[in-house]
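> call design_seq(struct)
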């Protein structure tokens, strides 16, 4: 059977992830990764194909997808799945040195080293291991930067007196000074927080940017360039990976379930020895006693349960399930619903996979949610613009987008009532306040995101209006000249890639609001 690729099959897949190609018997014959799944899959079905690719395509009967949050995560997951399934058309990757791992030793005064692995996968040496980190080519330079920043010693054996590193300002010399011995533990704690958590990395990077600015002002350009390159190298350390965790990570199964009213859709990822090794999708009709709890019970009658089962919805018979599964497994099995941390991130990723596969959300909205750090997927966006023609004709307009597409029945236009002259800030204040005062008063549903055409000034005006009427809605602005996105609380604007579907949604909403406002302005001038 020859697989026929269709646009419908790839709908909603302009996103990084992993694809699994299957033959007519359901056997996985090839696993690949992509920065853009849709483009990558299309490439297999183009006209220019080599002989081997043509033979592969002839055997494809179905393609399954697993979305990830980044290309780096797709890379790691692809490698794990290839080792798990060993497809015929894949070269089995021996990737134990493919990623960078860092180790903080457990000595009295710890050192920072590159963690080495044996063929079995076990790490050499003692201490705490962090990773995996991608872009390992600059690992030694990055480690040097971290060592200097946190005054970490590099000597294999502690000397009795301060060495050259102390005089160069790279180490506090705990070998000689009592005060340095007390500070050392604080420095190591700071180092661990940076390489172990994204927010701390952001703070550290921000500090380096300040130092770079000061170096530039003092004409120390060599130091400024060094700091700039350091910031670039630190990028790979700032990306938390969910697809693999080091250390004594417990065995865990992750289940995400979404119910569309008639059918429940489930996706499961399994973590074994800290590595995501397997994935499955299921669905069942929501009738009679068909519940998530019953599904879990049936699933684990044929599969060994791990110690931890992570879910997005707590099953109705949680206590019973834990007792039964614990008795069968011979150890305590716990079912939990995470509220924060990496487990919550993994569950969120699973739910996004289900939503995209079921066509419930545009992938651009997922990218947008991540880009500007929104609490929810921005399914409903309302965008405001001001249209001026001289001082006499000024109107406000609002476009409304639902699931990434224009909802023209929801568009609104405003005659400016309280502002004279050309004062865009005051006009934005007026129309935003009028819009949401009515919605709040009527207890109507609020949008997931308010978008303002303009920069910091327009955003500040809109935020003031939202606060006055008690409308708690995320609000950002987009400046047309460089397509910068301003987010409250962030000193610098966010630059979204111009090819990103997230930016295209914002641009479309902004352009629609502008078009609608210009049309209304032209109408008013025509009838007067």
């Amino acid at each position: 059977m020859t697989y026929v690729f269709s646009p419908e099959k790839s709908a909603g897949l302009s996103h990084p992830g992993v694809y699994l190609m299957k033959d007519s018997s359901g056997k996985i014959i090839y696993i690949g990764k992509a920065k853009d799944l849709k483009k990558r899959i299309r490439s297999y079905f183009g006209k220019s194909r080599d002989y081997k690719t043509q033979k592969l395509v002839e055997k494809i009967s179905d393609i399954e997808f697993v979305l990830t949050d980044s290309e780096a995560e797709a890379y790691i997951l692809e490698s794990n799945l290839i080792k798990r399934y060993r497809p015929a058309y894949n070269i089995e990757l021996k990737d134990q040195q493919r990623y960078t791992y860092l180790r903080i030793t457990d000595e009295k005064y710890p050192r920072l080293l590159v963690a080495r692995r044996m063929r079995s996968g076990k790490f050499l040496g003692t201490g705490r291991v962090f990773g995996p980190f991608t872009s390992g080519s600059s690992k030694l330079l990055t480690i040097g930067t971290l060592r200097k920043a946190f005054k970490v010693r590099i000597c294999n054996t502690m000397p009795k007196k301060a060495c050259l590193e102390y005089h160069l300002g790279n180490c506090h010399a705990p070998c000689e000074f009592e005060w340095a011995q007390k500070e050392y533990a604080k420095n190591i704690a700071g180092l661990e927080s940076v390489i172990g958590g994204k927010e701390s990395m952001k703070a550290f990077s921000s500090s380096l940017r300040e130092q770079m600015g000061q170096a530039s002002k003092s004409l120390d350009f060599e130091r400024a360039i060094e700091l700039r390159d350091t910031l670039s190298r630190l990028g790979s350390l700032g990306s938390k990976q969910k697809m693999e965790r080091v250390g004594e990570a417990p065995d865990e199964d992750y289940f995400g379930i979404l119910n569309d009213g008639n059918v429940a859709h489930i996706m499961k990822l399994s973590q074994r020895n800290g590595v995501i090794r397997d994935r499955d999708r299921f669905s069942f009709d929501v009738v009679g006693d068909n519940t998530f709890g019953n599904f879990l019970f049936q699933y684990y009658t044929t599969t060994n349960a791990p110690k931890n089962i992570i879910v997005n919805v707590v099953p109705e018979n949680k206590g019973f399930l834990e007792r039964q599964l614990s008795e069968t497994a011979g150890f305590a099995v716990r079912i939990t619903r995470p509220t924060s941390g990496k487990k919550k991130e993994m569950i969120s990723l699973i739910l996004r996979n289900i939503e995209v596969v079921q066509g419930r959300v545009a992938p651009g909205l997922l990218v947008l949610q991540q880009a500007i750090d929104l609490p929810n997927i921005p399914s409903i966006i309302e965008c405001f613009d001001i249209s001026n023609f001289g001082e006499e004709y000024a109107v406000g307009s609002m476009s409304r987008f639902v699931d990434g597409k224009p909802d023209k029945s929801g568009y609104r236009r405003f005659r400016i009532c309280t502002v004279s002259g050309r004062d865009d800030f005051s006009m934005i204040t007026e129309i935003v306040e009028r819009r949401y005062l009515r919605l709040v008063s009527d207890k109507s549903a609020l949008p997931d995101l308010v978008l303002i055409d303009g920069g910091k000034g327009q955003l500040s005006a809109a935020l003031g209006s939202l606060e006055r009427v008690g409308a708690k809605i995320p609000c950002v602005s987009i400046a047309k000249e460089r397509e910068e996105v301003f987010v409250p609380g962030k000193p610098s604007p966010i630059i979204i890639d111009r090819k990103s579907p997230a930016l295209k949604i914002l641009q479309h909403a902004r352009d629609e609001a502008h078009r609608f406002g210009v049309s209304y302005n032209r109408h008013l001038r025509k009838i007067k």
